C-alpha cells in the first residue's frame, strides 16, 4: 500500500492555482472556516473585541496577534484543546495612526506585550464534519493566555548561572514572559514546546552592555541604541533597556515547555536545548527510548541542532519524563557533500551522481555541565550557542526553519526557507544555490534509522521555485505536473507519511500556501498546492488531525503589505468588507467527510 509509506496513493485533489486573492482558497469539494481570530475571547470574562477601543487588560484575556504554531490535544472524539503561538505584533496594522514605539501611547505598548505569547483554547467538533469551533459557553477550565508578562521558570544546566541573573531576579531562575514564539512541537508526555525566535528586536541599547558581552550581542544581532521600528517595550518595562539590564536579553531565545492541562503551572524555559533564534522543537524517540529534539536556528547562515536526553522516556512515568529535557547532549549538524565541489557550480544542475546528497555528523557542544567547546563553559555554550557552534565547524545553512521526523518513514525533513545573501563562492552541496530566493527541503536519514545516532545521510528532496526555472528540483518528478512553491517554512505529516509544507514569503509573487507531497515511491516530489492564504499573509501551523478529517492552518499577518494601515487596509479577511485584517486560525475539511487530500 503505497499510501502507507508516503507514496501518495490517496492524494487526488485538484491543486489550488496560484492567486493574489483576499481569501482562503481550498480545493474543489472542500470547505473552510475560521476557528479563532485575534481578539476573540479566550478567558470566559474577556470582553468582545473592539478594534477602536482596545486595552491591555482586554488583550490579556483575548486571543493574541499573529498566530503561528498550532497543535491539538484531544479530550475525547469531539472536544480538544488547541495550543497556538502568538509570534509578534504589527502595530501599524493594530492601531490607527501608529507612528513608532517612541511616539506610541504607553497603553499601546502594554497591548503589544499582552498580544505576544500563546493561547490555550477549548474547541469542539461540529458533529459529523471536520469543522472545529471555539467553545464559547461554560467554564472552559483550561483556557489560558500566556504573554510577555507571564512568570516563568528556568531549568537545566544554565538555570541560575551568572549569565541569566538580573536585578529583578538575582538567582537567575525566574524569567518573565516569552517573545516571538514562532513554531513548536509536542512531547510524548503531552506538553507543548514553543520556540522563541527573533527576540533581538524587542531590546534597546545593545551597544551599551559590558565589553565582555559585546561579541555575543552582535552574534545575536541585538540592536544598538534605539533601532527604527523598535516597539519600545523599555518605556513600560525597563528590563528591555540593555544599558540598565544587560543580562535580560539572555533570558529570551529559549524553548519553552507548557502543559496545556495545567493552567496554573509556570511555563519552563529549558536551558539544555540551547539559546538561538529557535524556529521549532520537534521530538521523537531514539531506539533506546531517549528523547530527541530537532531544532533549527532561523537566520541566514545559521545551524541545525538536536538535543538527545540522557535518560529514557518511560510511558506513564510523568514525574520522570518531565525532567528529561533538563539533562542531555546538545549537538550541531555538519553536512558533507559526496560530489566534487566543482560539480556544485550554482547553476542548479544536478551533480553527476544525480543528487545533492551526502553524509553528516552531529557534533556535540555540551552535555550537562560538560562543555566540548574550547574556551567556553557549559553555561556559555548554552546561552551563547551560536558562538559555540561557530567554533566546531558546523555547516552554515540557508535559514533552517521547521524540522520534524516523519513518523511513517523515520526520515527527518528540514525546511530551509531561503538565503538571498549566499554568494556563488559560498555554495555547497547542502545549500547549492546562490542568492537562494525560494529555499529548499532537505531529508536527513539518521544512521540505522536511530534518532540517537551521531551520523546521518542526507539529500535534497526539493529545490523550490517555479518549476520552469532550471535551478528547481522536485525529486525527479515530472515538473510539468507540480505546483510552484517558494519559501518552505513549516512542515508537518499526515498519518500516511505525506509531507505538508507551509510557505512564508512566496518570492514568486503569489500568495503563500499549504502544499503536500509524497516522499516515497513514484509520487515523491509531486508537490500540489492544497490551499492559499489571503493577501499579505504567511501560512503557519499546519496540522492534519490524527483522524485525517481536518487540516488546521494559522493565517499569520493577513494584509501585511507595505503601506497598509487601518485607514487603508489591503485585506479585510476574515470579517469581510469594512473589517480590519485579523490573524486567525482556520480549519479545512472535505465537504463529504473524506480523508484530507482525497
Ligand atoms: Fe518566525 Fe522562522 O519564522
Ligand atoms: Ca551528490
Ligand atoms: Ca516560521
Ligand atoms: Ca518564517
TrEMBL record:
Region (Disordered): 559-598
Pfam families recorded: PhoX
Name of the molecule in the record: PhoX family phosphatase
Lineage: Bacteria, Bacillati, Actinomycetota, Actinomycetes, Streptosporangiales
